[in-house]
Amino acid sequence: MNVRPLHFCDVTVQGERWPVYGWAIDRPDGTILVDTGMIDSTPELDADWGPVLLPWPDTGNVVAVINTHLHFDHCGGNRRFAGTPTYVQRAELEAAVAPDYLEEWVRFEGESYVEVEGDAELFDGVSVLFTPGHSAGHQSVLVETGDGLVVLGGDVTYSMRELIDGATPSILRIHELRPERVYLAHHAEPWRPNYH
Fold it and tell me: Where are the domains of the chain?
């Protein structure tokens, strides 16, 4: 299995422009898409976050979606995949209400969420790890690749320093797996731990 970072858009956080990444997990039977970025905006988002939408990346034939969480910059493209099984933690779906969430981007005609409770294997070599903190139902995605375990950490933290330091219980759960690399949604390059 191959993991490809996908740069969906940028947002402005405290005057800094942050990239927003998701990932494509390429498998023989199609692509599992982890997070869906943004496909449009709203006047409120424009005012608060100054999003810059990028051309939609090549996602391949998407057969399933996994949302790390349902904040606008991670689930805004879910509407492109109406009818596609979309895996999200039950706690996150329950928490996804206004004003903290953009409800019309979470709940839309044709949405087909598959609710997950805690850690779960979703597909052969692809599982989720319950990593709450940033949001009530945040999950990280674990992918067994030929190079070892890859963790798609979403917003388990914004900070590469916090990730490396193991600053929270959820981050420590990732450390315990001794992954080959860990991606965060707002960083281009992954953390590559050195356990030797």
Answer: 2-183
Spatial distance between the Cα atoms of 77 and 53, rounded to a whole number of angstroms: 11
Number of C-alpha atoms within 13 angstroms, CB side, residue 134? 25
pLDDT at 196: 56
Which tens digits make up the pLDDT trace of 166-178? 999 999 999 999 9
What distance in Å separates the CA atoms of residue 171 and residue 158, rounded to the nearest whole number?
11
> Strands, DSSP E only, in 104-147?
113-116, 120-123, 126-130, 139-145
Please give the class, per CATH, of domain 2-183: alpha beta
- 180 pLDDT exceeds 80? yes
* Residues constituting the chain: 196
DSSP 183: E
